[in-house]
Design brief:
seven-stranded parallel sheet; alpha/beta; about 40% helix; Rossmann fold; 7 strands
Length: about 240
């Protein structure tokens, strides 16, 4: 899929992860200027060296408002504005039944999957409004947001809350020409998932390249009519 991002400034959170790195490669191939974010810049120095070009490496704690503000300010100082946010941060874990769990399991899921969406997408939307940028915000969500599952209460709840935030923000900024949309995968083909499910038919899983293409589509003019959409990408495991 040939999409042009020449001179567009793309902020990618979770850039050291499997999906984030694939998205970075996809946008770099389209000519974008990149701001890559992880907890430590050492996490993606090899990726930055591979990509070359005009790449800004940032370390940030995306559960802290001050850290998110500093991140956006650093991108503004380097590039002037943000045209695209690809937010790929999140985490999965299997917990106890709801009736047995401690509150820290719910708090952990909230910090992994909900709070960063609230802080990062909201702050970038504020930046776009301030700078009159008709940009694109793409958030990686999950199929699991659709319904609860045994021993996945905190995870599915946190993903559902993240999706509602995306939909709400989309309704709030669409009249300013800002597109806020989500991508919901099922199982992604990563080394971690292969290790956890050694007997699975991985040919049915979603590849990180397919995820990157979906994110790039939603960040491009090709998605001009989409506001608050949730692009489901399940592979053949749907």
């Amino acid at each position: 899929m040939a999409l042009d991002f020449e001179n567009k400034v793309v902020l990618i959170t979770g850039a050291s992860g499997n999906v984030g790195a694939a998205a970075a490669r996809r946008f770099a191939g389209g000519g974008a200027r990149l701001a890559l974010v992880a907890r430590s810049t050492a996490d993606f120095e090899p990726l930055a060296a591979e990509l070359g070009g005009e790449t800004l490496l940032l370390a940030a704690d995306l559960t802290q408002p001050d850290g998110v503000n500093r991140m956006v300010e650093q991108v503004e100082a380097r590039f002037g504005q943000i045209d695209v946010l690809a937010h790929t941060v999140g985490g999965f874990f299997l917990g106890k039944p709801v009736y047995e769990m401690a509150v820290d399991e719910l708090e952990r899921a909230w910090k992994l999957n909900t709070l960063p969406v609230f802080l990062v997408a909201g702050r970038v939307a504020h930046h776009m409004l301030e700078h009159s940028v008709q940009g694109h915000i793409v958030v990686v969500l999950a199929k699991s947001a659709a319904a609860g599952s045994a021993r996945l209460g905190p995870y599915t709840a946190s993903k559902a809350a993240a999706q509602r935030l995306v939909e709400s923000l989309a309704a709030e900024v669409r009249d300013a020409g800002i597109h806020v949309n989500g991508v919901s995968p099922r199982t992604i083909d990563t080394p971690e998932n292969r290790a956890d499910m050694p007997k699975a038919d991985t040919s049915k899983w979603v590849t990180v390249e397919q995820m990157a293409d979906a994110i790039a589509f939603l960040a491009s003019p090709a998605s001009a009519g989409l506001y608050g959409a949730n692009l489901e990408i399940f592979g053949r495991a749907g």
